[in-house]
Amino acid sequence: MKIGQLACRASLNASAIRYYEKRGLLAPPQRLGGQRRYPSDALDRVLLIRFATDMGFTHAEIKLFLSGLRDNTPVGPRWKKLAAHKLAEVERNIARSLKLKTLLQGLLRCRCASLKQCVCALGLSENLRSLALRAK
Amino acid sequence: MKIGQLACRASLNASAIRYYEKRGLLAPPQRLGGQRRYPSDALDRVLLIRFATDMGFTHAEIKLFLSGLRDNTPVGPRWKKLAAHKLAEVERNIARSLKLKTLLQGLLRCRCASLKQCVCALGLSENLRSLALRAK
DNA sequence: CTAGAACTTAAAGCTGACTTTAAGTCAAGG
DNA sequence: CCTTGACTTAAAGTCAGCTTTAAGTTCTAG
Fold this sequence. Notes:
Two copies of one chain form a homodimer.
Chain A: H1 3-9, H2 14-23, E1 30-32, E2 35-37, H3 42-54, H4 59-66, H5 77-109, H6 115-121, H7 128-131
Antiparallel strand pairs in A: 1-2
The first copy, chain A, binds a DNA duplex through residues 2-4, 12-16, 18-19, 23, 33-36, 53, 58-60.
């Protein structure tokens, strides 16, 4: 499979695939006359990378996650640690988003005359410092 | 209040405050000898900007949200539309994160010999295309 | 009065995940 | 054989939300 075909099947640009390779997420494939030729299972790999990226993993994280995937290494404690760490992060993100959702719903329901009153009514102003979770 | 003091009270850098001003999020304050002097309610404004930023609003969105906050304009339909739009976005984000959470928990619980098996066991590989929500 | 802390500006730098550009090479159809 | 489209590279550009830098000005304490 040439890079264009792989890109097309994965619904992304060829440049993205070259970029994955440069970042070490995707093994450099065979070359024919200087051009990349991919085996068919490269599609799964690329889709997995795409999925993880969409899910908010950084490329550095994905690289860690994927190293060892190639030769059927058992799912070790190192890997589980990474997953647990990410899980905690995801849960924090969910908590934040739920809080924001409640807030937005409150703002949408309110009958205050002004945004400023809304903010007061919801106790936002007083708790601004504590609410600002300052991601990271 | 000088910019350093405001920055300190809001727990951010003076440069961030100047940046907010340049982006039009924060009204340019009075000047004494060329230096900015803020009224005390500027702190609330800055904290609100910080909070919204933390909550994942872009500066463009915050600018839209905050325009009209100054002179007690009623919470109009335009504003509500923005909030509703953001609410939908937040809900999509929550749905994504919950899906990812389930997935990570599955991976953490599994006893597969390899990550590849895990991915298969969870039906990830087959559904990779549909799962990849491609944010936006 | 003077040292030095805090302020001023514009412009460049940072991170992440790519895309775009420029300039060139390869491959397949007519 | 020749065109045209797909490929190659390195390097620069993009977006957001700042931070850092450089060079200069102003305020304040001693």
